[in-house]
Amino acid sequence: MSKEELIRRFWSVFESEVVEQGYELVDVELTGVGGVRILRIYIDKETGGIVHQDCTAVSQLLNPLLDADNFISDNYILEVSSPGIDRPVRKPKDFERFAGESITVTTLSPVLGQKEFIGVLRGFGDGLIQVDCEGTVFEIHLENLRKANLNR
What we know:
- It is built from three helices and eight strands; from the N terminus they run αββαβαβββββ.
- By secondary structure, it is of the alpha+beta class.
- The chain has two domains: 79 residues, 2-Layer Sandwich (GMP Synthetase, Chain A, domain 3), CATH 3.30.300.70; 59 residues, SH3 type barrels.
């Protein structure tokens, strides 16, 4: 199974488990270093931010589920982390929630000749992310999103 397929599968199988514990699943990364894969999970919660105990709780929740599901057949390390100050933004509700904040958006395909947009997030509507870059508002289709991070 490809890296992208594993990430999609993680979202579909385990997001509800994380949500049931009171956390938001922000992002999932799968990398490989020297034959050992790293499954990195980013979580957040509405109030108080993420602390070490939150990461431990989610790790203790996911470890047995991942093993029982035989999610990754190779050796892997599970890392659970806060999204940090440059929080990834990927879901429509995130683009609405963080409207007014500084953001960097990278696209898969160029929009009006460019693939990187640094500006103020104006919101999300009709499948479009709106980013104001020095007075010009760019509309980027969610399907064209490669990566988006807040600039805090």
